[in-house]
């Protein structure tokens, strides 16, 4: 599209507005504030437990008591929500991930503790079986290791309802089974949870950028050399993402997610412009790890590329961003306002 009133140089000098900070601010087309951030956290059993994740410098797994302390800072910083990822021991895992819908499971207890301590902080839960299966797949497998769709959906429904029963504000199926949003929505309605939001990981790609996350939740070891190609999307596809998102919206999703982030911003842009629904993006563990590695080597300015990467997601059309940088970015924004 040509500019509606094309004018020639020197009547137009595009550098004029860039000449001062005040005019750069006035013509800035996109904003990034703490309102746009969601903080993913890894939850551990026990008390006063804090474990570093080596492939994610600066990220720690926390026991519920320490997570509750962290939640106070999130509220103070103006971050609207957390996304919980439980880390359970191998003894609690089995072939079908039955610990996932235990009403007193780690995620369910974490939800209750957070909602009690910080009622205004939105709590999102991950609906998928991978933290709870011995094989590390997101669903229940047959003898050949194929993840069974409809059997898995039944398990996911139990998991999602148990999260809502515990007080989760948003359940976020990240499993990529077909039909799970409709099934979860129906069960939530039947259970009276009419305002529980569903954030559907609608276009989740079979990405190698998830490596550090699998270290963090301890699903990597069991997972070994297998992959998730039979349910997560092929990175070569883009129309298919529109199809996935449209279906999840039709099934009752309130918000949709594109994942990973920076390598998939074309998808974020298409989804937002074509479907016009609340569109979130996940800056995943591998993206975080790359930024941190470059920063620690002195190769990139960490704060600057962090903010640039987040703004790029906003510019592409993301309404909110799940990012391990949420706290660091919100602290930086607070300090810059002072
Ligand atoms: N349900 C699995 C899940 N939920 C979030 C992530 C990745 C998040 C990240 O890399 O930060 C994954 C990884 C996977 O599909 O194996
Ligand atoms: Mg789908």
TrEMBL record:
The UniProt record lists the keyword Lyase: yes
Enzymatic reactions: 2 5-aminolevulinate = porphobilinogen + 2 H2O + H(+)
Pathway note: Porphyrin-containing compound metabolism; protoporphyrin-IX biosynthesis; coproporphyrinogen-III from 5-aminolevulinate: step 1/4
Keyword Lyase: yes
Signal peptide (from-to): none
Residues passing through the membrane, by range: none
Entry EC no(s): 4.2.1.24
SMART domains: ALAD
PROSITE patterns, A to Z: D_ALA_DEHYDRATASE
UniProt entry keywords in alphabetical sequence: Heme biosynthesis, Lyase, Porphyrin biosynthesis
One GO molecular-function entry: porphobilinogen synthase activity
Name of a matching Pfam family: ALAD
Highest taxon, organism lineage: Bacteria
Subunit and partners: Homooctamer.
Family affiliation: Belongs to the ALAD family.
Protein name, as recorded: Delta-aminolevulinic acid dehydratase
Organism of derivation: Marinobacter salinisoli
């Amino acid at each position: 599209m040509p500019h509606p009133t094309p004018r020639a140089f020197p009547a137009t000098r595009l550098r004029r507005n860039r000449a001062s900070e005040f005019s750069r601010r006035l013509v800035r087309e996109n904003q990034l504030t703490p309102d746009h951030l969601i903080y993913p956290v890894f939850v551990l059993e026990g008390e006063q437990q804090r474990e570093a994740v080596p492939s994610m410098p600066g990220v720690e797994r926390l026991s519920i008591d320490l997570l509750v302390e962290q939640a106070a800072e999130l509220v103070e910083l103006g971050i609207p929500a957390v996304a919980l990822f439980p880390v359970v021991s191998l003894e609690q895992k089995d072939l079908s991930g039955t610990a996932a819908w235990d009403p007193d499971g780690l995620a369910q207890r974490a939800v209750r503790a957070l909602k009690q301590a910080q009622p205004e902080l939105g709590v999102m839960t991950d609906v998928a079986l991978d933290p709870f299966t011995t094989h590390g797949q997101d669903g229940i497998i047959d003898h050949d290791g194929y993840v069974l769709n409809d059997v898995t959906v039944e398990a996911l429904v139990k998991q999602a309802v148990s999260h809502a029963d515990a007080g989760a504000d948003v359940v976020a199926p990240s499993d990529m089974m077909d039909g799970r949003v409709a099934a979860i929505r129906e069960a939530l309605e039947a259970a009276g949870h009419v305002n529980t939001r569903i954030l559907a990981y609608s276009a989740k790609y079979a990405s190698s950028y998830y490596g550090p996350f699998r270290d963090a939740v301890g699903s990597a070891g069991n997972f070994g050399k297998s992959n998730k190609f039979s349910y997560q999307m092929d990175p070569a596809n883009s129309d298919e993402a529109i199809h996935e998102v449209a279906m999840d919206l039709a099934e009752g999703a309130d918000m949709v997610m594109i994942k990973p982030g920076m390598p998939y911003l074309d998808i974020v842009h298409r989804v937002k412009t074509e479907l016009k629904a609340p569109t979130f993006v996940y800056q995943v563990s591998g993206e975080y790890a790359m930024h941190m590695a470059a920063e620690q080597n002195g190769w990139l300015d960490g704060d600057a590329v962090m903010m640039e990467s987040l703004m790029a997601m906003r510019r592409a059309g993301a309404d909110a961003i799940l990012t391990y940088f949420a706290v660091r970015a919100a602290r930086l924004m607070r300090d810059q306002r002072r």
